[in-house]
Amino acid sequence: MPYTNYTEKLMTRAALKLTGRPVTFRLRDPIVDGAQGSAQKDLAGRNVIDISPWLLDHYGKFVRIFCHELAHVALGHVDTDLGTDITVKPGSIAWSLKGQTFHSMTTIETATEALTQKWLKLYKPIAPYFGHGVNTNLEAFLLAVIYHEE
Ligand SMILES: [Zn+2]
């Protein structure tokens, strides 16, 4: 899928709608080794989400990771992040060094996945109605998030 400044603007607006918080996106492999997406605070306290660029060729996977990382932000999981140096190379932080035990990881991920599925069930079916004149399924999905009133 083509990814333009417009796509990135839509992602930022959709993120604000879903989480109530400003989020910066980077289309690059996450700093956490082996992850397809990650959400963290940078050292200046900004919410930053990384998404692997290869996911752009997989609409379903892309929106799932997009919503999953935003669910972490919406649920406040990133609020306790003391700040990460996000200028380090992709994959340079080992998963185990995120400081979460397996149990708390499971609890956090279960809640995150529940919110992710709620959003996907709400927005994916109506995305085609927002798709007129847009370049990609992803942009249609993002417009559905931005403009749909529950
Ligand atoms: Zn997660």
Quick gist of this model?
With 150 residues, the protein is mainly alpha-helical. Helix content is 43%, strand content 10%.
Order of helices and strands: HEEEHHH
How is the quaternary structure best described?
Answer: single chain
What kind of sheet is the major sheet? 3 strands, mixed
- Report how far the terminal alpha carbons are from each other: 28 Å
Q: How would you describe the shape?
A: globular
Helix content: 40-55%
Number of folding domains?
A: 1
Topology:
Elements (H helix, E strand, L loop, with lengths): L4 H15 L3 E5 L9 E5 L5 E5 L7 H16 L27 H22 L13 H11 L3
Parallel strand pairs: 1-3
Antiparallel strand pairs: 2-3
This protein binds zinc ion (ZN).
Q: Could you characterize the architecture of this molecule?
A:
- It contains 4 helices and 3 strands; from the N terminus they run αβββααα.
- The longest helix is centred in the last third of the chain and has 22 residues, at 102-123.
- The protein starts with a helix and ends with a helix.
- The chain has helices at residues 5-19, 59-74, 102-123, 137-147; strands at residues 23-27, 37-41, 47-51.
- The chain has a 3-stranded mixed sheet, covered by helices on one side.
- The radius of gyration is 15 Å and the shape is globular.
- Strand 2 and strand 3 form a beta hairpin.
- It has 150 residues and is mainly α.
Provide tags for this entry:
mainly alpha, three-stranded mixed beta sheet, 3 strands, 150 residues, binds zinc ion, 4 helices, 10% strand
